[in-house]
Write a structure and sequence with these properties.
The chain is mainly α. The chain has one domain. The protein contains four helices and no strands. The longest helix has 26 residues.
């Protein structure tokens, strides 16, 4: 994925997160009926340190051993995240959408 595609993806994500934050604020302020509009819980699972260490060329690496390595990293990160956040699933967001995206 080139830089322009990354920026385009990020701008779409940021736009969606802004809408989620706005609707959440309107629900919290009583301006939208919470029976008609539901809060969206947002979670963020990442290991930026390991991903940054892979570098841009890794985006084109389709070797099986590399993909299995990524899978192992993903499982480890997800297991750690679940250990810290399991009780939040289905109840609340584990990130502050406004802080992260606005």
């Amino acid at each position: 994925m080139n830089r322009l595609n990354e920026l385009s993806f990020n701008s779409s994500l940021i736009g969606e997160m802004r809408v989620i934050a706005c609707v959440t604020d309107l629900i919290d302020d009583g301006k939208l009926d919470s029976n008609q509009y539901k809060r969206i819980n947002v979670h963020w699972i990442e290991d930026e340190k390991q991903m940054r260490g892979l570098g841009v060329p890794s985006k084109l690496n389709a070797r099986l051993d590399f993909l299995l390595h990524l899978k192992a990293i993903g499982r480890e990160v997800a297991d750690r995240w679940i250990g810290h956040n399991f009780d939040a699933i289905g109840r609340r967001s584990t990130i502050d959408v406004k802080e992260m995206f606005l």
